[in-house]
Specification:
Structural class: alpha/beta
CATH superfamily of the largest domain: Alanine racemase
Number of strands: 17
Strand content: 15-25%
Shape: globular
Order of helices and strands: EHEHEHEHEHEHEHEHEEEEEEEHEE
Radius of gyration: 22 Å
Length: 371
């Protein structure tokens, strides 16, 4: 944690210390409204992913606009949001190990908590822990719909797990997790449509196999920022887990938009300062690997197409410049991170700016919540 904050409420944006994580509130609020409008008039509900922002204040704003709850990836993330008053949290992950299960059950006694399974042993462990701590929780069967990460095969394998969940009084079979993560970053609308058509068929097959055993599949949840209109219009999915739509990072911005896709705005930036000008062709900024994730590529320089952020080390970023007078010491640049989720996790606070002033400072309360 930094010994002093990057900014205070009321500061002019020129007074913000760098590097800092900046949220353009006008763009952020437009993105919230655009998602709400995209689901208006449908029966499909939104459960946005909290791992994108790790910020309870943002979760509260999402729920104020109709979200039913949030998703997270870790039990410790869920704990932060439950402590902040978020009443409905789905952990879109498997929870395994005797160290985690007591924490999970403690949360389940205070809020509605969901978790995923893809193996019978996970169900048995959850059931035993829930009985021991007099808790109950929602359990979803995760189906591998094409991402080749977690999940069981569609159909009979999913039905067997659902039946096992239903046999435990302490567990509630809540539905199916059918998230296709790899599809989110397929660039063309046709590629994304093909991938989600496959995912939808897997969801339908699994739902039919479960219902053939006399059980109800109330929720089929999944989707992300790159594909959610496809799941929304599928007639199969009834809950969406999009998260990055709030910020629109550099990687998502590379997706080609289809006719039904929603145009979101860049809202999240890393503010950085030129701290060295060692040559006519390059400038060094104070935002490096510890200021912006580069797993999805280097950040882009916002509204300065002639500049290229080409290389990063721990505390330095190298920006190539076309001519000697394009940048000077002390100049400030806004960077669009390639991947918003891990970038947010690098900061203690989000500096929220409207126009030229800092309007709010929001803690990234779940930063580092990896357990």
């Amino acid at each position: 944690m930094s010994p002093w904050p990057a900014a205070a409420v009321g500061d002019h944006r020129d007074a913000i210390d760098t590097p800092a994580l900046i949220l353009d509130l006008d763009a952020f609020e437009k993105n919230l409204s655009s998602m709400r409008a995209a689901l208006s008039g449908t029966s499909v509900r939104l459960r946005p992913h909290g791992k994108s922002h790790k910020c309870p204040e943002i979760a509260r704003r999402q729920m104020a606009l109709g979200a039913v709850g949030i998703c997270v990836q870790k039990v410790s993330e869920a704990s932060v949001f439950v402590d902040a008053g978020i009443p409905d949290v789905l952990i879109t992950n498997q929870v395994v190990g005797p160290a985690k299960l007591p924490h999970l059950m403690e949360l389940a006694r205070r809020a509605r908590i969901g978790v995923l399974v893809d193996h019978a042993a996970q169900i048995d462990a959850l059931a035993a822990a829930a009985r021991a701590q007099r808790a109950s929780l929602d359990v979803y069967v995760e189906v591998d719909v094409g991402a080749n990460r977690c999940g069981v095969a569609p159909g009979a394998a999913a039905a067997e797990l659902a039946e096992r969940i239903g046999a435990s009084p302490a567990l509630r079979f809540a539905g199916l997790q059918c998230y296709h993560g790899a599809a989110q970053h397929l660039r063309s609308p046709g590629e994304r449509a093909q991938a989600i058509a496959t995912a939808t068929r897997s969801a339908v097959e699994s739902k039919a196999a479960i219902e053939a055993r006399g059980m109800t599949v109330a929720i089929i949840t999944g989707a992300g920022t790159g594909t959610f209109p496809l799941e929304r219009d599928s007639g199969v999915f009834n809950e969406l887990q999009a998260g990055s739509y709030l910020f629109l990072d550099g990687d998502y911005a590379q997706n080609q938009l289809g006719a039904a896709d929603v145009h979101f705005r860049h809202a999240l930036f890393v503010l950085t300062t030129v701290m060295s000008r060692p040559g006519a062709d390059r400038a060094i900024v104070d935002a490096g690997l510890k200021a912006s994730s580069v797993d999805s590529g280097m950040p882009a320089v916002w509204q300065r197409d002639e500049l290229r952020y080409g290389k990063a080390s721990d505390e330095h970023g190298v920006v190539t410049t076309p001519h000697a007078d394009s940048l000077s010491l002390g100049d400030r640049l806004m960077l669009v991170p390639g991947h918003c989720d891990p970038t947010v996790n690098l900061y203690d606070q989000i500096v929220c700016v409207r126009g030229e002033r800092v309007e709010a400072i929001w803690p990234v309360a779940a930063r580092g919540a990896l357990l």
